[in-house]
Amino acid sequence: QVQLVESGGGLVQAGGSLRLSCAASGLTFSRSGMGWFRQAPGKEREFVAGISGSGGVTSYADAVKGRFTISRDNAKYTVYLQMNKLKPEDTAVYYCARLTAWNSRRGDYWGQGTQVTVSS
């Protein structure tokens, strides 16, 4: 079965950086669009970034453009989210997901999430 396991969350001061990782198994990884989503307390889960199976196409939510970078290593079945210039409003649980299509902003398989807390 599909398993997605996130890691790399934590507490960081505003302006700092974190790198999230998502290790995947049970899917044809190089053919799977992958994405990062987040859910803050009291808010709906929202799309953050997506990447095509080859890694050649990426997309970002407006709130993170220019600060976050999504990437993947197909040999390691891993997708990453490099987060720079973090803001308190980036505080959320971050989820990795397989996208329903390479250019979709919806996921069909989800990890358990990793907490990111940005202090002001």
* Integer-rounded radius of gyration: 13 Å
Structural class: mainly beta
**Strand content of the residues, in percent?**
over 45%
Q: Give me the count of strands.
A: 11
- First-to-last CA distance: 40 Å
> Into which percent range does the helicity of residues fall?
under 10%
Structural shape: globular
By DSSP (H or I, 4+ residues per run), the number of helices equals: 0
Order of helices and strands: EEEEEEEEEEE
Major β-sheet profile:
7 strands, mixed
Low-pLDDT parts are none
Q: What's the average pLDDT?
A: 97
Layout of secondary structure:
Elements: E1 3-7, E2 10-13, E3 18-25, E4 34-39, E5 46-51, E6 58-60, E7 68-73, E8 78-83, E9 92-99, E10 107-110, E11 114-119
Parallel strand pairs: 2-11
Antiparallel strand pairs: 1-3, 3-8, 4-5, 4-9, 5-6, 7-8, 9-10, 9-11
Please give a structural write-up.
This protein has 120 residues and is mostly beta strands. It contains no helices and 11 strands. Strands 2, 4, 5, 6, 9, 10 and 11 form a 7-stranded mixed β-sheet that branches. Strands 1-3-8-7 form a 4-stranded antiparallel β-sheet, with no helix packed on it. A hairpin with a 7-residue loop joins strand 9 and strand 10 (107-110). The chain is globular and about 40 Å long.
Structure summarized in a few sentences:
The chain is an all-beta fold.
Summary tags:
120 residues, mainly beta, 7-stranded mixed beta sheet, 4-stranded antiparallel beta sheet, 11 strands, globular
